[in-house]
Fold each of these.
Amino acid sequence: MSGISEVSKQEVSHLEKTVGDSSDSVKFDESDRKLGVDIDEGFDPAEVKRVVRKVDWRLIPMLILMYAISLIDRTNLSVARTANENRFDKDLGTDGNNNRYSIITVVFFVPYIIFELPSQFGLRAFGARIWLGTAVVLWGAVMLGMGFAQNWYTLAALRAILGMFESALFPGAAFLIQCWYPRKELAFRNVIFYITSSLGSSFAKLIGFGFSHLDGRGGMAGWQWMFILYGILTIFIGLLAYVFLVDVPTKGNFLTEREREIVMTRIERDRADSVPDPLTWPKILAYCCELKSWFIAFAFMSTTMSAYALAYFMPRILTIMGFNNVESMLLGTPAYFYAIIPAVVCGRIADRIPHMRGNMILFNAVCIIVGTAMYSQLPSNQRAARFVGIFIATGGGNSNIPLILAWQAVSIRAQSKRAFCSALTVAFGGIGGILGSTLFFNKEAKQGYPTGVFTIIGLNVATIFGTLAMMAWMHMKNKKAKRGECVIEGAEGFYYQI
């Protein structure tokens, strides 16, 4: 799994002594670039804690709000159909045994995958506030337009455009979080960002069900009102991003010079990449040669397939278990509350015991396998046990998504590489979305969706074996680096956190 490092020793030595703008700059001495030292040395612990909390409250809540509405807008199709099934199918022509609903679902992910990497160039060119805020406003307008769709192919086309605009947010958010925090703080922040967004989006089923009761108002169906109202809400959140979203630390104007010095010095001491470096095609080609990035992307795909399958089909799965439509809408939310527990616990362990990162991913992959098997394969008269399986699978999937992102982040250096790897990983997450939305065939519903279920199980078994291989390889590389036989990620003193 040896790869081509993007930052040579010469590049490291040429990091600028001064970063930021001319009026508010941060200076480093050589000791700040020496990896392996205490990142908080020389700073008052209370002051560091205060600065970290200031960054937390300014960065994370806005990203949570934006990603929550992103998850809502991409998955509320199932809510619209379940709440007004007869009206939805009749209006759009998705009734019968055709695959039109599956097409509407899957077309979102094609541009979502294609535009992941190009979106990172836009992020670097325009900055997070303008680029991501505009993306949210634009896809909100698309959501609004979906409320006026007259047929299934119009809705499918709008879903494709939705995927193009949404492709900017998740890799952009993951990149921003990675740029602001040292490695020992990344997993927990990723967990808070993702799990809170998922929890917020789970309420969309309840809110969307409420919107559906506007059926008939103004001569419009309930599913139309749901898209229109969510579109208005999305545009509002995008406008908030123009005001409150922050960019990379070098542009962190909400901090004082002293506070920015603390943030960037900690990053320099942790991994020496606080200063942005350009994302170029030669670097992209070099990054593409690193197998560890591809494996992490594969593991992310395996996890997101499970998460998307439950997001799109949980109401149907619960209906098959014997719950009515209203119960199936309500009973999907508690599993996301439960997911907070394993996600937070695993995130804390991964950050505080760095060599437990891989083990936490293994644990949650096992949970996905066990939970998926329980909700799909147990006899129909064991409804309670099948319902518990949904909790276990939801907890495993929603825990592993931020943990895998964090493992990717702590295993690399350089902001250009973070931009590339974030886009690659999230793009594979889109492939997981395609698999999760297409392999759960309606004709197999009564049999427990065997094609989709066994694909999830098989992919996560592969993730387990791949993670074990990755951990062994990282351990070997760390031993060689400590003996002076190699340099990891182009920086002496940098070691993998296993």
Amino acid sequence: MPGEVLSQNEIDALLSALSTGEMDAEELKKEESEKKVKVYDFKRALRFSKDQIRSLTRIHENFARLLTTYFSAQLRTYIQISVASADQIPYEEFIRSIPKMTILNVFEVPPLDGRILMEVNPNIAYAMMDRVLGGKGVSVNKVENLTEIETKIMSNLFERGFENLQEAWAAVAEIEPLLTDFEVNPQFLQMVSPNETVVVISLNTQIGETTGMINICIPHVVLEPIIPKLSVHYWMQTSKKERLPEEIVSLEQRVKKADLPIITELGSTDISIEDFLLLDVGDVIELNQAIDVPLTVKVGEIPKYAAQPGQAGKKFAVQILDTLKGGDEDGK
């Protein structure tokens, strides 16, 4: 780890202190050689690297854009959703950080194990429901008294919105989000052990004039199988997909049936624009091609063969005499 850069005045003061005996060089060396101990809190075990957290942030930035589009279409009002932060904390700390009464949507994401929690601030949830019911998007926080109709409207809205996570995660895992539980009291919801590390992605959300947060809580058990795919090396590498034998055969058959333009040049010449403008029916243009010189056959503008003219039945034809150099498969 690089040390702190000293100014020239600090360097002069340090040299002066060493020369006058105020500081001992041996003591400085001893302090440098001592092991530096860093306090580690086992309750806040960091199980994800910064690189992996950045990858999760990128994935959910895409998810936030998809949610913005989805809710804009559903609510017909101004919607803005963006990633505010991504942190790894104990599950217990996350539960303490959200309101005592809030909107909790629990999703399974097969084939991955575990469940993902999407917590929606009541101000946001009620503003969305008000818009669905034809209102202006006014928020009234009475989450502890949700009716069955309100519960159904909210759960349906967030269930369809969370389906966008499937597209956002497509690069790392093929998941099928499924809403399994809808709760309003975090104390009644125990997805994992209190000390389990979870990644919390917080989304700044604005519905018209109402603002709030949407938090997505992802336990370590869900991400464990796909952790290698969250590294920079995975995102940077290019995977080469091998074709199946039947795909190769099918491709060859389609290529063989493709039409190619075949052009035989009888010759060419140069004339002036004046002569060109005076051309009329019956005029003869002299070509620079001798009769005893083979004609050039082009395939897709590329000279490919040498041929001689002739007749096949009642139609004009050419007979291939040779393959031209430079007319190979790469088109050179």
Amino acid sequence: MKDVRHPVDAADRDPSLDIGIDHAEKGEASSSEQELGYGDPDYLKKVKIATRKVDIRVIPILGALYSISGIDRTNLANARVAGMDVDLGFNQGDRYSIALLVFFITYFIFEIPSNIILRKLPAHRYLSFLAFAWGICIMCAGFAQNWIPIVIIRLLVGFFEAGFFPGCVYLISSWYERYQVHQRIAWFYAFNTVAGGFGNTLAYGLIQMEGVGGVRGWRWIFIIEGLITIVLAFLGYILIVPFPDQVSQSRKPFLSEDQVQLITDRLNRDRGDTTFDPITWSKIKFCLLKWEIWVFALLFMSCGVCIYAMAYFQQIIIKSFGYSVSETFLLSTPPAIASVPFAIFCSWLADKYHTRAPIVIVQAIVCLVGLLLVRYAQGTGPRYFGLFLGKMGCNAALSTVLAWQANNIRGQSTRAIASAMQVMFGAIGGIYASTVFMEKELPHYTSGIWAAVATQFYMILASIGMSLYYMKRNKQANRGERILEGLPEFRYTI
């Protein structure tokens, strides 16, 4: 068949790919691969060793810091159940919903600016600073005397946490090939899920400090968890790694020059975008005009709605079953823990078969069924089981949606902007959940449940639509009618 190489369509052309694309567009293998080949045992052993080093240095510390950020972000629910509600007047009107809501305002606004700053400063300094700053804020919440300081603190925590999650996703996706990244994001997020589950148990333990030093138990939740964050921030300063193109300039490179080159060669062969290109207004405009980015952002928002709904209202729902405060905290942990193996299995399956959309659809259905059980099932057991399914579906879907977008974009600046924009819409999901789960509908939250169910229907329909679109584009590329994302060998992941 005649090879017709049409110019890249304007809709496909990313200005961030203008740098360092010649080698990739020629389809040339790296020197290492030309000499050794993918099937050479010695070469594969070197790849495995280098990848394991990256796994050990990238995932645990970022996962630990993000896990404590998740606890810090959602500990308001634990403090409320433990007595803050009455002490600070959060049981009046919609004050609790306001405190939840304001966090997402600053969280939304500062996502993209933070990712721009991340590439201008060493990653270990910037990300650890963010953690240190929100840790101080959380600790200060333990000394609030009325509800207004809590609202101000939540605004500040949103400001500092805004850049951390998209920064982590950007850093992780920069180190791995397209069909390695889902499992790494799943493991990274698993730290948060497990910590979030045990965070409820930790909160219960801290409540037992009631009266120590004349301080209420719910105040100790903020004080101790803030201190834990500060300690982890110092560890982050020591352990967080730079981007691949910055390793040779780092203080103590954790990879040899040969290992860095090995990983860079494989990344270039996989997607050809390891060269950093500065973020400019034209590139930001390109991302904002790329409609697929908005679809992925809304997919992430849909995940966020259910994740935040579970985080902020799960304890209240469980307590409404008739359990004591201590039983409520203890019963809040198992659903979170159970969601981890499901998420890891989904990520393994998705990477193994190079697919994303079918996995997202299954996860959305699991979450949807769980939500409906929580609202309409008869008896405590089935409703509690609904929390398990809801947690499993939404927690697993988060890493799948992140990986799906990461697989289908190229260019360092595009990756920075797109990942920040995607997580920005997670903040909208938090706002959505904070407002649709209304105090007056406690404990059934009928409007909130159906509003969350609607987001899962969107995930199903959007995944089907994106799959059909990507299948069409891939077929056009196979016929030589189109070049995808500026690289002839590139194909979209479905």
Amino acid sequence: MLRYLPLTLVYCRLLLGLVVLGLCGGAAATTALRQLLAALVVLGLVSDIFDGIIARRLGVATPALRRLDSSVDTLFWLCVLAGVVLLCPRFLPEHALWISVVLALEALTYVVSYLRFRKEIALHTLSAKLWTLVLTALLLELILSGHTSWLFGACVGLGVLSRLEIIGILCTLRTWATDVPSLYHAWQVRRGRPLRRHPLFNG
């Protein structure tokens, strides 16, 4: 049964995203609700961190699972972002331009991946992992306080850089691959060198 734990965590994260979106759109923004939402987002992040680690430890980190993981990650964070927009109605009008830039680059990564390999992204780069942590901090700040600080600029900057790196990796690789930590590693793979694996990051 342990072999199904990573897949369970992936689907639980999707469910958590839908619950967050539903709660944000259907209840008053009380302190208790904000704390519950923050806890659900943290649970989603924890599941995101450990599903890959557990899958690699159990030897079930298949390309199909990693592709599903990436797609669910995107859906989870889109649900949380949409929930935050409902919870903090002033956030979107004040930051629409930069949010649109990051979302457009995210969409572009999928377009490039499909054009090159006919598959969705499953790179799980280190910069994307770091961006996820900053994004989580930003969303938690918005959920708990209703406003944001320097975290928004940091999140946008890192989001843009990490998406551009992903596009660079996709253009560098000759064949589709999962868990490529950085553009440097992609270049090494292109030169025929084996990709070094780490059990915590990319198997």
